[in-house]
Amino acid sequence: MTIRFGVWALVHGSRAAFQDPNEPFDASWERNRALVLEAERLGFDSTLVAQHTINPHRAETDVMEAWTASAALAALTEKIEIITAIKPYLYHPVPLAKMALQIELISRGRFAINLVNAWNKPELEKAGIGFPEHDERYDYGREWISVLEPLLRGESVTFKGVNFDVRDYMLRPADPYRARPRIYVGGESEPARALVADWGDVWFINGQPLADVKALIDDVASRHRRWGRPLRFGLSAFVIARDTAHEATEHLDYLFDLATKDAAVRAVQRANTDPKSVMAATMAKTPRVGSNGGTAAELVGDYDTVAERIVAFHRIGIETFMLQYQPFEAEMRRFAAEVMPRVRRLIALG
Fold this sequence. Notes:
- The chain is of the alpha/beta class and 350 residues long.
- The chain has one domain (4-349): TIM Barrel (Alpha-Beta Barrel), CATH 3.20.20.30.
- It contains 12 helices and 12 strands.
- The protein has helices at 29-42, 66-76, 93-107, 121-125, 134-152, 190-199, 210-223, 245-259, 263-272, 278-285, 303-315, 328-349; strands at residues 4-8, 46-49, 81-86, 111-115, 157-160, 165-169, 182-186, 202-205, 232-238, 240-242, 300-302, 318-324.
- An 8-stranded parallel barrel has the order 1-2-3-4-7-8-9-12, surrounded by 6 helices. A two-stranded antiparallel ribbon has the order 5-6.
- Helix 3 packs across helix 5 (134-152), helix 5 packs parallel to helix 6 (190-199) and helix 6 (190-199) crosses helix 7.
- The protein is globular and about 60 Å long.
Protein backbone atom coordinates (compact mmCIF):
# COMPACT_ATOMS: atom_id res chain seq x y z
CA MET A 1 0.00 0.00 0.00
CA THR A 2 1.45 3.32 -1.06
CA ILE A 3 1.22 6.42 1.12
CA ARG A 4 -0.39 9.55 -0.30
CA PHE A 5 -0.56 13.12 0.97
CA GLY A 6 -3.25 15.64 0.15
CA VAL A 7 -4.28 19.17 1.10
CA TRP A 8 -7.67 20.65 1.82
CA ALA A 9 -8.48 23.50 -0.54
CA LEU A 10 -9.33 26.64 1.44
CA VAL A 11 -12.83 27.02 0.04
CA HIS A 12 -14.10 28.88 3.11
CA GLY A 13 -10.87 30.28 4.51
CA SER A 14 -8.75 29.23 7.48
CA ARG A 15 -9.20 25.79 9.00
CA ALA A 16 -8.33 26.52 12.64
CA ALA A 17 -8.66 30.11 13.89
CA PHE A 18 -10.52 32.67 11.83
CA GLN A 19 -8.81 35.78 13.26
CA ASP A 20 -5.18 34.87 12.71
CA PRO A 21 -2.99 37.90 11.80
CA ASN A 22 -0.62 35.49 10.04
CA GLU A 23 -3.41 34.19 7.81
CA PRO A 24 -5.99 36.85 6.90
CA PHE A 25 -9.30 35.53 5.57
CA ASP A 26 -9.03 34.57 1.92
CA ALA A 27 -11.28 32.01 0.23
CA SER A 28 -10.69 33.34 -3.27
CA TRP A 29 -10.21 31.39 -6.46
CA GLU A 30 -6.84 33.10 -6.89
CA ARG A 31 -5.55 31.82 -3.56
CA ASN A 32 -6.86 28.31 -4.08
CA ARG A 33 -5.43 28.12 -7.59
CA ALA A 34 -2.00 29.13 -6.32
CA LEU A 35 -2.23 26.78 -3.34
CA VAL A 36 -3.12 23.69 -5.40
CA LEU A 37 -0.51 24.43 -8.06
CA GLU A 38 2.13 24.77 -5.35
CA ALA A 39 0.95 21.61 -3.62
CA GLU A 40 1.41 19.76 -6.89
CA ARG A 41 4.93 21.15 -7.29
CA LEU A 42 5.77 20.11 -3.72
CA GLY A 43 4.75 16.51 -4.39
CA PHE A 44 1.30 16.30 -2.83
CA ASP A 45 -0.90 13.66 -4.42
CA SER A 46 -4.43 15.02 -3.92
CA THR A 47 -6.52 18.02 -3.06
CA LEU A 48 -10.00 17.91 -1.52
CA VAL A 49 -12.38 20.67 -2.61
CA ALA A 50 -15.26 20.83 -0.14
CA GLN A 51 -18.69 21.82 -1.45
CA HIS A 52 -20.54 24.72 0.14
CA THR A 53 -22.87 27.23 -1.45
CA ILE A 54 -22.72 29.48 1.63
CA ASN A 55 -19.85 29.75 4.10
CA PRO A 56 -20.63 27.27 6.90
CA HIS A 57 -18.76 29.34 9.51
CA ARG A 58 -19.70 32.92 8.69
CA ALA A 59 -22.48 33.28 6.14
CA GLU A 60 -21.55 36.89 5.37
CA THR A 61 -18.11 35.90 4.08
CA ASP A 62 -16.97 34.37 0.82
CA VAL A 63 -16.89 30.72 -0.19
CA MET A 64 -15.46 29.23 -3.37
CA GLU A 65 -17.78 27.07 -5.51
CA ALA A 66 -16.38 23.56 -5.68
CA TRP A 67 -17.36 22.13 -9.07
CA THR A 68 -16.57 25.05 -11.34
CA ALA A 69 -13.28 25.57 -9.50
CA SER A 70 -12.43 21.87 -9.82
CA ALA A 71 -12.95 21.97 -13.57
CA ALA A 72 -10.51 24.88 -13.76
CA LEU A 73 -8.00 23.12 -11.51
CA ALA A 74 -8.25 20.05 -13.72
CA ALA A 75 -7.16 22.11 -16.70
CA LEU A 76 -4.34 23.87 -14.86
CA THR A 77 -2.73 20.90 -13.13
CA GLU A 78 -0.94 17.85 -14.49
CA LYS A 79 -0.50 15.24 -11.73
CA ILE A 80 -2.49 16.00 -8.59
CA GLU A 81 -5.77 14.16 -7.96
CA ILE A 82 -8.76 16.49 -7.66
CA ILE A 83 -11.41 15.25 -5.22
CA THR A 84 -14.61 17.28 -5.23
CA ALA A 85 -17.25 16.92 -2.55
CA ILE A 86 -20.91 16.52 -3.46
CA LYS A 87 -24.05 16.80 -1.34
CA PRO A 88 -26.65 14.74 -3.22
CA TYR A 89 -29.59 17.05 -2.48
CA LEU A 90 -27.90 19.88 -4.38
CA TYR A 91 -27.56 18.04 -7.73
CA HIS A 92 -29.60 15.42 -9.55
CA PRO A 93 -27.30 12.41 -10.19
CA VAL A 94 -27.67 12.48 -13.99
CA PRO A 95 -26.26 15.99 -14.68
CA LEU A 96 -23.78 15.53 -11.84
CA ALA A 97 -22.48 12.33 -13.45
CA LYS A 98 -22.03 14.22 -16.72
CA MET A 99 -20.13 16.98 -14.92
CA ALA A 100 -17.91 14.42 -13.19
CA LEU A 101 -17.10 12.66 -16.46
CA GLN A 102 -16.26 15.99 -18.11
CA ILE A 103 -13.81 16.90 -15.32
CA GLU A 104 -12.37 13.39 -15.58
CA LEU A 105 -11.69 14.10 -19.27
CA ILE A 106 -10.22 17.55 -18.57
CA SER A 107 -7.92 16.11 -15.92
CA ARG A 108 -7.04 13.03 -17.99
CA GLY A 109 -8.09 10.55 -15.36
CA ARG A 110 -7.33 12.46 -12.12
CA PHE A 111 -10.82 13.23 -10.85
CA ALA A 112 -12.77 11.83 -7.89
CA ILE A 113 -15.96 12.65 -6.03
CA ASN A 114 -16.37 12.76 -2.26
CA LEU A 115 -19.92 11.82 -1.29
CA VAL A 116 -21.10 13.56 1.88
CA ASN A 117 -24.67 13.74 3.08
CA ALA A 118 -24.64 17.25 4.60
CA TRP A 119 -24.61 18.54 8.17
CA ASN A 120 -25.16 22.30 7.75
CA LYS A 121 -28.92 22.83 7.92
CA PRO A 122 -29.27 26.43 6.61
CA GLU A 123 -27.50 25.58 3.36
CA LEU A 124 -30.39 23.36 2.32
CA GLU A 125 -33.26 24.85 4.33
CA LYS A 126 -32.79 28.43 3.12
CA ALA A 127 -32.75 27.23 -0.49
CA GLY A 128 -36.14 25.59 -0.01
CA ILE A 129 -34.64 22.13 -0.54
CA GLY A 130 -35.35 21.04 3.00
CA PHE A 131 -33.18 19.17 5.48
CA PRO A 132 -34.60 15.68 6.08
CA GLU A 133 -33.70 13.57 9.09
CA HIS A 134 -30.23 12.01 9.20
CA ASP A 135 -31.16 8.48 8.10
CA GLU A 136 -33.55 9.77 5.45
CA ARG A 137 -30.67 11.77 3.93
CA TYR A 138 -28.65 8.56 3.73
CA ASP A 139 -31.54 6.72 2.10
CA TYR A 140 -31.60 9.48 -0.50
CA GLY A 141 -27.83 9.31 -0.87
CA ARG A 142 -27.96 5.55 -1.44
CA GLU A 143 -30.49 5.95 -4.25
CA TRP A 144 -28.46 8.84 -5.64
CA ILE A 145 -25.22 6.86 -5.84
CA SER A 146 -27.12 3.87 -7.27
CA VAL A 147 -27.95 6.06 -10.26
CA LEU A 148 -24.65 7.90 -10.49
CA GLU A 149 -22.16 5.02 -10.25
CA PRO A 150 -23.27 3.05 -13.32
CA LEU A 151 -23.61 6.28 -15.30
CA LEU A 152 -19.95 6.99 -14.49
CA ARG A 153 -19.15 3.56 -15.89
CA GLY A 154 -20.80 4.43 -19.18
CA GLU A 155 -23.64 1.98 -18.64
CA SER A 156 -27.24 2.44 -19.68
CA VAL A 157 -29.21 3.13 -16.51
CA THR A 158 -32.85 2.45 -15.76
CA PHE A 159 -33.73 3.06 -12.13
CA LYS A 160 -37.05 3.43 -10.33
CA GLY A 161 -36.93 4.39 -6.68
CA VAL A 162 -38.55 6.64 -4.11
CA ASN A 163 -36.64 9.71 -5.31
CA PHE A 164 -35.53 8.98 -8.88
CA ASP A 165 -37.09 7.63 -12.06
CA VAL A 166 -34.34 7.30 -14.67
CA ARG A 167 -35.07 5.54 -17.96
CA ASP A 168 -32.53 4.11 -20.37
CA TYR A 169 -29.98 6.89 -19.74
CA MET A 170 -26.42 6.66 -21.02
CA LEU A 171 -23.63 9.27 -21.00
CA ARG A 172 -21.01 9.73 -23.68
CA PRO A 173 -18.10 10.00 -23.98
CA ALA A 174 -17.36 7.34 -21.42
CA ASP A 175 -14.21 7.45 -19.29
CA PRO A 176 -11.23 6.58 -21.56
CA TYR A 177 -8.74 6.39 -18.66
CA ARG A 178 -10.29 3.83 -16.28
CA ALA A 179 -13.62 2.23 -15.42
CA ARG A 180 -14.84 5.44 -13.73
CA PRO A 181 -13.65 8.24 -11.43
CA ARG A 182 -12.83 7.19 -7.88
CA ILE A 183 -15.55 7.51 -5.22
CA TYR A 184 -14.63 8.71 -1.73
CA VAL A 185 -17.27 8.61 1.00
CA GLY A 186 -17.34 10.60 4.25
CA GLY A 187 -19.34 10.06 7.41
CA GLU A 188 -19.04 7.71 10.38
CA SER A 189 -22.64 6.92 11.32
CA GLU A 190 -24.09 3.46 10.84
CA PRO A 191 -25.77 4.39 7.51
CA ALA A 192 -22.51 6.03 6.34
CA ARG A 193 -20.49 2.90 7.10
CA ALA A 194 -22.97 0.73 5.24
CA LEU A 195 -22.91 3.13 2.28
CA VAL A 196 -19.13 3.17 1.96
CA ALA A 197 -18.93 -0.62 2.31
CA ASP A 198 -21.35 -0.99 -0.60
CA TRP A 199 -20.30 1.86 -2.90
CA GLY A 200 -17.07 3.54 -1.85
CA ASP A 201 -13.52 3.13 -3.09
CA VAL A 202 -12.05 5.15 -0.21
CA TRP A 203 -13.51 5.95 3.22
CA PHE A 204 -12.53 9.34 4.62
CA ILE A 205 -12.25 9.23 8.42
CA ASN A 206 -12.19 12.40 10.52
CA GLY A 207 -9.05 12.98 12.56
CA GLN A 208 -9.02 10.90 15.74
CA PRO A 209 -6.51 9.05 17.93
CA LEU A 210 -4.87 5.97 16.45
CA ALA A 211 -6.86 3.38 18.44
CA ASP A 212 -10.19 4.94 17.45
CA VAL A 213 -9.20 5.03 13.77
CA LYS A 214 -8.14 1.38 13.90
CA ALA A 215 -11.53 0.37 15.34
CA LEU A 216 -13.32 2.25 12.54
CA ILE A 217 -11.16 0.63 9.85
CA ASP A 218 -11.68 -2.84 11.30
CA ASP A 219 -15.44 -2.37 11.42
CA VAL A 220 -15.91 -1.11 7.86
CA ALA A 221 -13.34 -3.51 6.40
CA SER A 222 -15.34 -6.40 7.88
CA ARG A 223 -18.46 -5.22 6.00
CA HIS A 224 -16.75 -4.88 2.64
CA ARG A 225 -17.64 -7.80 0.35
CA ARG A 226 -17.03 -6.55 -3.20
CA TRP A 227 -14.63 -8.87 -4.92
CA GLY A 228 -12.03 -7.13 -7.06
CA ARG A 229 -12.67 -3.66 -5.60
CA PRO A 230 -10.51 -3.20 -2.51
CA LEU A 231 -11.67 -0.58 -0.04
CA ARG A 232 -9.02 1.97 0.95
CA PHE A 233 -8.93 4.47 3.80
CA GLY A 234 -8.11 8.14 4.19
CA LEU A 235 -7.67 10.35 7.24
CA SER A 236 -8.19 14.07 7.74
CA ALA A 237 -5.71 15.75 10.09
CA PHE A 238 -4.27 19.11 11.07
CA VAL A 239 -0.46 19.14 11.25
CA ILE A 240 1.85 21.20 13.44
CA ALA A 241 5.45 20.08 12.89
CA ARG A 242 8.50 21.94 14.19
CA ASP A 243 12.17 21.43 14.99
CA THR A 244 11.23 20.68 18.60
CA ALA A 245 8.15 19.41 20.41
CA HIS A 246 8.18 22.60 22.52
CA GLU A 247 7.89 24.80 19.44
CA ALA A 248 5.02 22.68 18.10
CA THR A 249 3.16 22.88 21.41
CA GLU A 250 3.67 26.64 21.51
CA HIS A 251 2.05 27.01 18.10
CA LEU A 252 -0.82 24.73 19.12
CA ASP A 253 -1.41 26.85 22.23
CA TYR A 254 -1.29 29.98 20.06
CA LEU A 255 -3.99 28.59 17.76
CA PHE A 256 -6.11 27.51 20.74
CA ASP A 257 -5.89 31.06 22.12
CA LEU A 258 -6.82 32.55 18.77
CA ALA A 259 -9.73 30.15 18.43
CA THR A 260 -11.32 31.52 21.62
CA LYS A 261 -12.07 34.67 19.63
CA ASP A 262 -14.33 32.57 17.40
CA ALA A 263 -16.65 31.44 20.20
CA ALA A 264 -19.70 33.24 18.83
CA VAL A 265 -19.12 31.87 15.33
CA ARG A 266 -18.67 28.35 16.69
CA ALA A 267 -21.91 28.64 18.67
CA VAL A 268 -23.84 29.48 15.50
CA GLN A 269 -22.13 26.62 13.67
CA ARG A 270 -23.14 24.15 16.42
CA ALA A 271 -26.73 25.38 16.24
CA ASN A 272 -26.72 24.86 12.47
CA THR A 273 -25.30 21.33 12.70
CA ASP A 274 -27.52 18.26 12.56
CA PRO A 275 -27.61 17.03 16.20
CA LYS A 276 -27.51 13.44 14.91
CA SER A 277 -24.25 14.05 13.09
CA VAL A 278 -21.69 11.54 14.35
CA MET A 279 -18.93 13.88 13.17
CA ALA A 280 -20.07 16.56 15.61
CA ALA A 281 -20.17 14.10 18.51
CA THR A 282 -16.74 12.71 17.62
CA MET A 283 -15.20 16.17 17.35
CA ALA A 284 -16.55 17.11 20.77
CA LYS A 285 -14.66 14.27 22.47
CA THR A 286 -11.16 15.70 22.03
CA PRO A 287 -10.03 19.33 22.38
CA ARG A 288 -8.59 20.29 19.02
CA VAL A 289 -8.08 22.97 16.41
CA GLY A 290 -8.87 22.47 12.76
CA SER A 291 -11.88 21.03 11.00
CA ASN A 292 -12.84 17.40 10.40
CA GLY A 293 -10.98 16.21 13.46
CA GLY A 294 -8.10 18.61 13.19
CA THR A 295 -5.36 18.02 15.75
CA ALA A 296 -7.27 15.13 17.39
CA ALA A 297 -5.16 12.81 15.23
CA GLU A 298 -2.16 14.03 17.26
CA LEU A 299 0.08 15.02 14.35
CA VAL A 300 1.67 17.68 16.55
CA GLY A 301 5.33 17.56 17.55
CA ASP A 302 8.86 17.58 16.22
CA TYR A 303 9.45 16.38 12.67
CA ASP A 304 10.49 12.87 13.62
CA THR A 305 7.53 12.37 15.96
CA VAL A 306 4.99 13.58 13.40
CA ALA A 307 6.54 11.29 10.76
CA GLU A 308 6.42 8.31 13.14
CA ARG A 309 2.75 8.96 13.95
CA ILE A 310 1.87 9.18 10.26
CA VAL A 311 3.61 5.86 9.64
CA ALA A 312 1.71 4.31 12.56
CA PHE A 313 -1.59 5.35 10.93
CA HIS A 314 -0.34 4.02 7.61
CA ARG A 315 0.44 0.64 9.14
CA ILE A 316 -3.14 0.20 10.34
CA GLY A 317 -4.50 0.94 6.87
CA ILE A 318 -4.53 4.69 6.16
CA GLU A 319 -3.35 5.34 2.63
CA THR A 320 -4.34 8.98 2.00
CA PHE A 321 -3.68 11.77 4.53
CA MET A 322 -5.76 14.87 3.78
CA LEU A 323 -3.96 17.60 5.68
CA GLN A 324 -4.58 21.09 7.03
CA TYR A 325 -2.20 23.73 8.34
CA GLN A 326 -2.16 27.32 9.59
CA PRO A 327 -0.75 29.51 8.18
CA PHE A 328 -1.49 27.11 5.37
CA GLU A 329 1.03 27.78 2.62
CA ALA A 330 4.06 28.21 4.88
CA GLU A 331 3.28 25.10 6.92
CA MET A 332 2.52 23.08 3.79
CA ARG A 333 6.01 23.91 2.52
CA ARG A 334 7.53 22.96 5.87
CA PHE A 335 5.72 19.62 5.84
CA ALA A 336 6.88 18.84 2.30
CA ALA A 337 10.49 19.71 3.15
CA GLU A 338 10.79 18.12 6.59
CA VAL A 339 8.11 15.49 7.19
CA MET A 340 7.50 13.87 3.81
CA PRO A 341 11.13 12.69 3.41
CA ARG A 342 11.17 11.32 6.95
CA VAL A 343 7.94 9.39 6.35
CA ARG A 344 9.25 7.85 3.15
CA ARG A 345 12.52 6.85 4.82
CA LEU A 346 10.66 5.15 7.67
CA ILE A 347 8.45 3.24 5.25
CA ALA A 348 11.45 2.17 3.19
CA LEU A 349 13.10 0.83 6.36
CA GLY A 350 9.97 -1.24 7.06
